[in-house]
Design a protein that fits this description.
4 helices, 226 residues, alpha+beta, Alpha-Beta Plaits
């Protein structure tokens, strides 16, 4: 029988986790993949470099390599397109016809003193933003959002931040934490975990079903007024 996999430790907070566990139960970090090609590459990266940006780096690197190879092939094809052509000139004088055939390469004609510069390949696309980055409500902005959780301030902001990161990992976007005491439209004394920054209530209502299907059945739309 094969020996069971040893438990690992979260690279952010050091909390032990069981084999095949996807997220850290303490800080909500997505745990590294230990199997397959991505897991092997990630382990090799961590062995040689202290910082590992995440599994998203591999498809970005593959796309970059494909873009560079395509650009090199396009440049080589452009340079080789000026191949040789055959020009056949036929002249007839009097009763006797003569044919003069000129064979040789004919390239593109350029004016004296001009230089042809090959086009450079397009720059690679920028990497996506970190998936565990929280957003802040814009200062002085009145709008609407979807409230996911309300945590009493006596519990501490750290608990609200952990819930917000868990919402990010569930697939929700523009997730952040705000202090309800700073907004007149909210009841004071709570840390509010929200998702989305909208100019209208219709915009917030449009994403409400997505939040409810992502594990927040009690989510609701709410105006945010400074």
């Amino acid at each position: 029988m094969a020996a069971p996999e040893p438990p690992g430790e979260c690279p952010r907070c050091g909390t032990p986790y069981a084999p095949r566990q996807e997220y850290c139960l303490e800080c909500g970090l997505r745990l590294p993949v230990t199997g397959g090609v991505v897991g092997t590459l990630a382990t090799a990266w961590r062995r040689h470099l202290p910082y590992y940006p995440g599994d998203w780096i591999w498809p970005v690197l593959v796309a970059l390599v494909i873009a560079v190879v395509a650009a090199v092939v396009a440049i080589v094809a452009t340079r080789d397109s000026g191949g040789g052509k055959t020009i056949v000139a036929t002249t007839t004088q009097g009763p006797v016809g003569s044919t003069v055939t000129t064979v040789g390469p004919t390239g593109p004609t350029t004016a004296p003193g001009t230089t042809t510069v090959p086009s450079s390949p397009p720059p690679p696309p920028p990497p996506p933003p970190p998936p565990n980055q929280l957003v802040s409500w814009p200062s002085g902005t009145t709008g609407f959002t979807v409230v996911l959780n309300s945590i009493p301030t006596s519990t501490g902001r750290a608990q609200a931040v952990r819930l917000a990161k868990a919402a990010l990992h569930s697939g929700l976007t523009n997730v952040g934490v705000l202090d309800s005491s700073r907004y007149s439209s909210l009841h004071p004394g709570y840390y509010v975990v929200f998702s989305g920054i909208f100019k209208s209530q219709a915009g917030a209502q449009g994403t409400l079903s997505n939040a409810q299907s992502s594990g927040y059945p009690s989510a609701y739309a709410r105006p945010i007024t400074p």
